[in-house]
Design goal:
The complex is a heterodimer of chains A (214) and B (328). Chain A is built from 5 helices and 8 strands. Chain A has 214 residues and is an alpha+beta fold. In chain A, the strands form 2 sheets. A 5-stranded antiparallel sheet of chain A has the order 1-2-3-5-4, with helices on one face. A 3-stranded antiparallel sheet of chain A has the order 6-7-8, covered by helices on one side. With 328 residues, chain B is of the alpha/beta class. Chain B has 2 domains: 148 residues, ATPase, nucleotide binding domain (Nucleotidyltransferase, domain 5, 2-Layer Sandwich), CATH 3.30.420.40; 156 residues, ATPase, nucleotide binding domain (Nucleotidyltransferase, domain 5, 2-Layer Sandwich), CATH 3.30.420. Helices cover 42% and strands 21% of the residues of chain B. Chain B is built from 9 helices and 12 strands. The chains are: A alpha+beta (214), B alpha/beta (328). Chains A and B meet through helix 1 of A and strand 8, helix 7 and helix 8 of B.
Chain lengths: 214, 328
């Protein structure tokens, strides 16, 4: 079915441990193609199922969040034969590269707050997975590690990863950034939830394990 | 610096091991006494009693093997944890006794760190992503700022524990029983594949495999499905860790490092990613005293000793508690 649609591959924008991300043109529109490529080390039977299940999971999360007002790329098509997701291309830059990341922090807090209120955790909430534009637009991308029915622990890990990511990218303004984030987060979830989440985050840090790529 | 010699004692689980190593990386002795339960898994108390019985002869054999006399040893190291409390205490007691009698310093070694360091010594790799898989431990780790950081680990039971328990339950014995029988398997069945980020979970997988056997699926088929699923999950998390840390070496250590199929999968992954796979040789894969002795040498080099009065065992010790002061 999908091969009848005219896709023109443009360029490779990301290679992760499990997927290749490319931009493609479809009817003159730019889309993102996320392809979970086969792994030769895995038996075909297992490999096919794993890639397929994850593709379905990511598509479900994207759809659920879009429908509930969280800014994520819109889902266009999924190709379950090949485990490919086609989604909206977001014009903007990674928050990591923004000229003044702190001006987006409160908005980010609100967006993550809404996502957490829906009991979805991102699972890899680093600055590379947040896209912003000059008009103060903000989107979350890459839900490959996301979880439905997220528990406090999963949400706290999101906050932890975000703060660590900020500290390693712009150490001098990271604390201002995170304060701004918490203002927006608290606006949505209330002060009690914020305190509980921060307490959990501390206990996760005591375990000293979640390491962020520098 | 002058050459020094450390005697190391391992007793975390079924193995009572005594090794002797030098600061130049020579292994002068490696004596193993393995407790084999008559049936079922390891019973901690019975294992510890067996260790207590074999300990004196193991120590004597190690001295004979090395050709050294007791006074030529510069320090005594022991496995402080993680492991089974009663077993750990036997090794610690023997080590304290030796240290006090010989008037030599005592060194407390983390069992997991020792598995990794002996793997590095034997393979010559320098800064790998490490997969440490055994009957009691499953973790993915790498040295970052002088500590083995846990990048991923099992959220419940160890990979080896999953395979051992399955083998014992269906009557084919622990590993390598399930992997051997898997060679006769013809059909794969879908089992829960639980990878969460860089963490893995095996307990649901074990239950599902046992349920397959209960519903009359041939045991070799279940063995095949189980081993393929477990090893795929492990290889995947290692690949994630390699992608994240951007390191180009992988080191496989621990008892399960003897698995041919796991080695094969990791090799394929490394070939595709352009990294190098190093595997600990069989003699240092399972628990052994040589790895404790060698890690003792490393700790000796930066004066990481412990007072006898504070040398209590830590059954739940974590690998990232240890500062790897010897690492550059």
């Amino acid at each position: 079915m999908l091969e009848q649609l005219d896709f023109v591959e443009e360029k490779l924008i990301r290679v992760g441990a499990e997927a290749e991300v490319k931009t493609v043109l479809w009817k003159g529109m730019k889309l993102v193609m996320k392809n979970r490529t086969p792994k030769r080390y895995r038996n075909d039977f297992i490999d096919t199922r794993v890639r397929r299940n994850r593709t379905i999971h990511e598509a479900k999360v994207l759809t659920y969040l879009s429908e509930n007002g969280v800014p994520v790329p819109l889902l266009f098509f999924i190709d379950l034969q090949q485990s490919i997701i086609f989604m909206q291309f977001i014009r903007g830059m990674e928050l990591r590269n923004a000229s003044n990341p702190t001006e987006h922090s409160e908005q980010l807090g609100k967006v993550v707050g809404v996502m957490h209120s829906l009991n979805v955790a991102h699972g890899d909430l680093t600055l590379s997975n947040i896209i912003v534009n000059d008009a103060k637009g903000l989107w979350l991308v890459d839900f490959g590690l996301s979880v439905f029915n997220a528990e406090l622990e999963d949400k706290a890990v999101d906050l932890h990863l975000l703060e660590r990511s900020a500290q390693s990218t712009f150490p001098s303004t990271a604390s201002v950034f995170f304060k701004g984030f918490l203002r927006g987060y608290e606006d949505v979830l209330g002060v009690q939830t914020v305190e509980r989440t921060l307490a959990k985050m501390k206990s996760i840090r005591m375990r000293g394990r979640y390491v962020v790529k520098p | 610096m002058r050459k020094y010699v450390v005697l190391g004692i391992e007793s975390t689980a079924h193995t009572f091991g005594v090794g002797i190593a030098t600061s130049e990386g020579e292994i002068l002795a490696n004596v193993l006494k393995i407790y084999k339960p008559k049936r079922g898994g390891i019973h901690p108390r019975e294992a510890s009693q067996s260790h207590a019985e074999t300990a004196p002869s193991a120590v004597m054999e190690a001295f004979e093997q090395s050709g050294l006399s007791a006074h030529e040893v510069d320090a005594v190291a022991f496995s402080q944890g993680p492991g089974m409390g009663p077993c750990l205490r036997v090794g610690a007691t023997v080590a304290r006794t030796l240290a006090l009698t010989l008037r030599k310093p005592l060194i407390a070694v983390n069992h997991g760190v020792a598995h990794i360091e002996v793997g590095k010594l034997a393979t010559g790799c320098s800064d790998p992503v490490v997969l440490y898989v055994a009957g009691g431990n499953t973790l993915i780790t790498s040295l970052v700022e002088k500590r083995y950081r846990i990048l991923g680990e099992t959220l419940d039971i160890a990979a080896g524990n999953c395979l051992d328990s399955f083998g014992i339950t269906v009557g084919i014995g622990p590993m390598p029983g399930p992997e051997r029988l898997a060679a006769q398997g013809a059909n794969l069945h879908e089992l829960p594949y639980k990878v969460k980020g860089m963490d893995v979970s095996f307990s649901g997988l074990l239950t599902a495999a046992e349920n397959l056997v209960a519903s009359a699926v041939p045991v070799p088929d279940v063995c095949l499905s189980l081993t393929e699923t477990v090893y795929s999950m492990l290889t995947e998390v290692v690949e994630r860790a390699v992608a994240m840390t951007a390191k180009n070496e992988v080191l496989l250590v621990g008892g399960l490092a003897r698995s041919n199929r796991l080695r094969q999968m990791l090799q394929t992954m490394c070939d595709d990613r352009g990294c190098t796979l190093h595997m600990v040789p069989d003699e240092y894969a399972g628990d052994n005293g040589a790895m404790i002795a060698w890690t003792g040498c490393l700790q000796y080099s930066c004066g990481m000793f412990i007072d006898v009065g504070e040398s209590h065992v830590k059954p739940r010790m974590r690998i990232d508690e240890v500062e790897a002061c010897w690492s550059s």
